[in-house]
# Entry
Amino acid sequence: MSATVHIDFNRPIALFPLPSVVLYPHTAEWIIAFEPRYRQMVEDCLRAREGGPVLDAAPIAMATYAGRSWDGERIGEPALRPAACVAKIVEHRALPDGRHQMLLHGFARARIQTVAEPDGRRLYRLARLEPIDHRPGAARRLPGLEAEIGGLIGSGELSRWKLLEPVRGWIKRGNVPTAFIVEQLLMLLSRGDSQRYRLLEEPSGRVRARFALSELAHLRALLDGAAGRGLAPARGVTGN
# Structure
């Protein structure tokens, strides 16, 4: 999908900050907008499609707070960390109470350059962003990397880990961009928001792939070691 969607970084993009990282490029997540400012943001983004399909709505930059808490009334916004994931709405449901439920699909890593605070009728922030991936453009297949991933998840106890079944299927079919596979693994294997944010701000696909391979190798060693000691399989692993 990302190969057919263009993000115009020459235009300001709406900011939707959350306490933690929930989205990488090539991944999707259901989000509910319930605060008045973000309900307005979703409505403005949808209005920009001018009657076209929902994918034509204006993009949304999923940002994260620089701090975990704040005191008193929320006047304006707390500070934000610079990296964000620019996303598009791919499904939308207007709820009876005025909230918006939407499936957001990530398309690009970006860095916040400048922020426009709420102004006039606009209750939410806008930002100028720039893409930070080292190799922008259409996603492609990297057979060598896929072979390494396939070798790790197709052997030992890791071959029985149910959460990796979709990854095994994508590699077997051979029609899914390798970056898509890596990003799914990053979301699955990263531990804690600090690590997830480091992977979000990492511009090098090679570095992100090395992290995925390292974590898979570590996980396989743990599972194989546990099986060798006669311990019960980890949750998400099927028995024979």
In short: Residues 205-228 form the longest helix (24 residues). The chain has a mean pLDDT of 87. The beta strands are 13-18, 28-33, 60-64, 83-94, 100-116, 126-131.
